[in-house]
Design goal:
Blueprint (H helix, E strand, L loop, with lengths): L8 E7 L2 H11 L3 E5 L19 E7 L3 E8 L10 H5 L7 E7 L7 E9 L6 H21 L4 E7 L18 H5 L2 E3 L21 E6 L17
Parallel strand pairs: 6-7
Antiparallel strand pairs: 1-3, 2-3, 4-5, 5-6, 7-9, 8-9
Length: 228
């Protein structure tokens, strides 16, 4: 994370040490506030013995530009009554939702729902179908909870928005989101040969997807400046 970016919101994945991330926050400046998911891979709460070493999700927000309205783990409240979402989201690595009110120069603050994800990794068919399941959970849950709000899904998708990294699979595991009206931005057909991960040359696995009511706000060529 570079202070030169001066981003309004940083969406982070694979966070293990909260103390080290807090040191980064301090380096960015007092205007930044840190929020870390109270869950992670194999840890359903901060009291879990697995939590300190678990891969967690986090946000750093610039409080001069963004008001923190709330945050929660999408579908996390359904565990242990329903273990399906737990399994689909990499053993409890649920999407971390941030309700953000964006300060305006004039007029009321605009609300943005940010969904920070770190999808199930792996190149087996089992991994693929867990990502399929997760995308269906996201599509259904987000549209039920926030039918009219602007929604931005970002993070480590661990697969493509067109096709798949899994041999024999020709459909993106996140097709459920597109069927539900979401728009994929980081499409391989639009950005051929680009990559965000050294282990997947020529493909984008760190992606941006949003609800259709955000489309008009995307600045031309801004995707080329997205930093992971």
């Amino acid at each position: 994370i570079s202070p030169d970016l001066q981003a309004d919101i940083y969406c982070l994945q694979e966070i293990v040490s909260i103390s080290q991330l807090n040191a980064v926050r301090q380096a960015l400046g007092t205007q930044y506030q840190l929020f870390v998911s109270p869950f992670g891979s194999g840890a359903t709460s901060t009291s879990s013995g697995n939590y300190p070493g678990a891969q967690k999700l986090a946000y750093l927000i610039n409080t001069q530009k963004v008001i923190h309205v709330g945050d929660f783990g999408l579908t996390a409240s359904q565990y242990p009554g329903d273990t399906s979402a737990y399994a689909c989201f990499a053993s409890g690595r649920y999407p971390y939702v941030l309700k953000a009110a964006l300060k305006q120069n004039s007029g009321p603050a605009d609300t943005l729902i940010v969904i920070n994800i770190h999808a199930k990794a792996g190149s087996t068919n089992s991994d693929y179908y867990r990502r399929v399941c997760a995308s269906q959970w996201m599509a259904d849950s987000l549209n039920a909870l926030f039918p009219m709000q602007k929604k931005l899904i970002v993070g480590d998708f661990n697969d493509y928005l067109e096709g798949s990294s899994v041999a024999g699979q020709s459909t993106s595991p996140f097709q459920n989101l597109f069927n539900a009206g979401y728009v994929g931005v980081t499409l391989p057909s639009v950005y051929p040969g680009q990559t965000t991960y050294i282990g997947s040359p020529g493909h984008l696995i760190d992606n941006v997807v949003f609800s259709q009511n955000i489309s008009g706000f995307l600045k031309e060529n801004s995707v080329n400046n997205i930093h992971y």
